[in-house]
Design a protein that fits this description.
The chain is of the alpha+beta class and 305 residues long. The chain has six helices and 17 strands. It folds into two domains: 161 residues, no CATH class; 139 residues, Alpha-Beta Plaits (2-Layer Sandwich), CATH 3.30.70.1900.
Length: 305
């Protein structure tokens, strides 16, 4: 499956106040901006729009059903600024990233234009305007600058990565620490999990892999899904330093306040973990759980033993 992470570099044009968790702010403003950049039909309802099948906006933000897999996943994930600082001064720089999956990597110019439009409209709360404006300065890929606002064109020849689970070698492991950079929302028995035993983590990763590869790759990887989930249940939790935190956001589309709570912190697992390390590597890249488009589900792991 093709994927690429693009790193955006921006600077505030006025003083700004943002929430501690910035993913919901970025995602909401991004959706608004992309529709205005990509939509040729104004404010028409996407569900009845003549050009829906050829428009990038509904593909990204309003995916349709995906046969036996249910609703298709979104072909992107946002990595918001991770600082918990809320106040930013005029001229202060900040970075964020966008991960694109499958054919969405072909539409990078639309996403750049959307973030430029988002900057013109503003985000968070400003001092003079309702929202604080920012200027997109550059976009990088693999450390190479591929877009510069001073000469606005996207550098050609940037080749997305190819994620192939079969090409990720297992790493010998008897103890693995997983640390969550952003909160994770995983379900167990149809409820949001307040704990994270290893089999819940692996089941969530398998669901994410299956869904993304089916929608944007060459089909589901040939994995022993039931066997992996069953064997994951034998892995013990040796140290649990996770805590549940709640973030509130207001949904303009649903016209109500929503909670984006999740588990954050670190957890240590022990057992025969070798066969699971390729899945953990994939989870680092793909993000897992609910609301990955808001920046949730970002984990890192390291082998302790």
């Amino acid at each position: 499956m093709r994927l690429a992470q693009y790193d955006f570099h921006a600077v505030f044009e006025e003083n700004a106040v943002l929430p501690e968790f910035k993913g919901s702010t970025f995602r909401g403003a991004f959706g608004w901006a992309l529709k205005r950049v990509a939509c040729p039909m104004g404010e028409r309802d996407c569900r009845i729009c003549l050009v829906r099948s050829r428009c990038i906006y509904p593909t990204v933000f309003e995916p349709t059903t995906n046969d036996a897999h249910g609703l298709a996943p979104h072909p992107y994930a946002i990595i918001p600024p991770t600082t918990r600082e809320r106040a930013f001064r005029k001229g202060e720089s900040f970075d964020f990233s966008l991960i694109l999956f499958g054919s969405a990597t072909e539409y990078l110019p639309y996403f750049i234009a959307a973030f430029e439009r988002m900057g013109q409209s503003g985000i968070g709360r400003g001092e003079v305007r309702p929202r604080a404006r920012f200027a997109l300065q550059a976009v990088s890929y693999r450390g190479q600058r591929i877009y510069d606002a001073r000469s606005p064109h996207v550098l050609q020849g940037t080749v997305p990565d190819e994620l192939d689970l079969a090409q990720i070698p297992p790493a010998p492991a008897r103890a693995v620490e997983v640390r969550w950079r952003t909160p994770v929302r995983l379900k167990a028995d149809n409820h949001l999990a307040g704990k994270l035993p290893f089999d819940v983590l692996i089941r969530g990763t398998l669901r994410r892999v299956s869904s993304l590869f089916h929608a944007f790759g060459a089909g589901e990887p040939p994995l022993d899904y039931r066997g992996l989930a069953k064997r994951a249940a034998s892995i013990i939790t040796a140290r649990d330093e996770l805590e549940w935190i709640d973030h509130r956001r207001f949904s303009s589309r649903q016209e109500r306040e929503m909670l984006l709570g999740g588990l954050t912190g670190s957890i240590l697992y022990r057992g025969d973990l070798t066969e699971f390390t390729p899945l953990l590597t994939a989870a680092e890249v793909l993000r897992i759980g609910k609301q990955t488009t808001f920046g949730l589900g970002w984990m890192e792991y390291r082998v302790i033993e």
